[in-house]
Design brief:
about 325 residues, alpha/beta, 10 helices
Length: about 325
């Protein structure tokens, strides 16, 4: 096992964590036939590797910063952390940054490529078998791919707001987002293209019910704008992602496909009412196709973002399932 590459030292008040750069095997080829110009996976390990290990991954904007540290706010800090559903005192939590890495030249990276990279990184960490892969949104797609490709390397699986293939509604919206960015790149205004694409994405992450409750019923334009448009503009203006990375991960979502009958691990599928991108009907279909599956549907007005916003509802289901499957 290669030595950890320690980037930062935690305070005593925080769970012990370590940043690791795991090199990928020589000749690691993507499904597209491309080779990575930066063939490594960046991970963060929370807790002790002698504990049952969990791989945890979220949406395309998420990364290895899952729980709070001295310098970063974790994207799932209400679920992951000391005393929470994903407790690093009980489990060793392995989170990671999705490929592509900064400055990467490869342009076609699939969810199976993400799974294969994680498989190699686990070898680097000396983790023979995951207790679970807990994935949400794009991370859920990667988790499904991992469970299907490496059935002997996972004890159980938790998939939130993710199915074995993209829904046509989401594919349609992401196609428009990619064309916006491509047009913006050609026009020399790539940053504005990412902002507009993010605004369109935000409209799909939430539900019409949430927008109705959040914004004024009388939402007519006041001059050239409205409250809801100002909200989306603001969200787009603060979003930072490299345009090519956005294009690569968006395409990865729309090329996603998993043969569900290859998943042998006990699986918990969690769906959210009002999710436009991974509708409950799609998640139920997945649960019916996996041999040992459990299906949970939560009531939420947040739509696809329920996995981020409904931690109090989701966390106990995850915790109970992981505990039941400990061996």
């Amino acid at each position: 096992m290669s030595a950890f590459i320690l980037k930062e030292t935690p305070s005593e008040a925080q769970c012990c964590w370590t940043d690791v750069t795991a090199p990928l095997p020589a000749g690691f080829a993507l499904e597209s036939g491309e080779f990575l110009s930066k063939p490594y996976l960046r991970l963060r390990v929370h807790g002790d590797l002698r504990q049952p290990a969990l791989a945890v991954a979220g949406g395309i904007s998420a990364g290895r910063a899952i729980a709070d540290t001295q310098t970063e706010k974790g994207w799932w800090r209400d679920v992951a952390g000391s005393g929470r559903s994903l407790d690093p005192e009980t489990f060793c939590i392995v989170s990671f940054d999705f490929l592509p890495n900064d400055g990467e030249t490869a342009r076609r990276i699939t969810t199976l490529d993400q799974a294969r990279a994680l498989d190699a990184a686990l070898d680097h960490l000396g983790v023979e078998r995951l207790h679970a892969f807990v994935g949400a949104s794009y991370g859920g797609m990667a988790a499904l791919s991992f469970a299907a490709a490496f059935p002997s390397r996972i004890q159980c699986l938790v998939s939130l707001c993710a199915a074995e293939k993209p829904h046509p509604f989401g594919t349609a919206l992401r196609g428009v987002q990619r064309r916006i960015i491509e047009f913006a790149i050609e026009s020399g205004r790539a940053g504005e293209g990412v902002s507009l694409a993010r605004q369109l994405a935000m409209a799909s992450y939430r539900s019409p019910k949430e927008f109705e409750s959040r914004f004024a019923a009388d939402n007519r334009l006041q001059g050239e704008t409205s409250e809801v448009c100002d909200y989306l503009t603001a969200r787009g203006s603060v979003y930072q992602m490299n345009p090519q990375r956005y294009l690569t991960l968006s395409h990865s979502i729309d090329s996603h496909w998993v043969e569900l009958d290859r998943i042998a691990a006990p699986t918990l599928f969690i769906a959210a009412q009002g999710d436009q991108l991974a509708p409950p009907s799609d998640i139920r279909r997945c649960a019916s196709a996996v041999a040992r599956a459990r299906y949970v549907e939560i009531a939420s007005s947040y739509g696809h973002d329920a996995f981020l916003k409904e931690s109090a509802a989701i966390g106990p289901f995850i915790q109970k399932f992981l505990t039941e499957n400990l061996k």
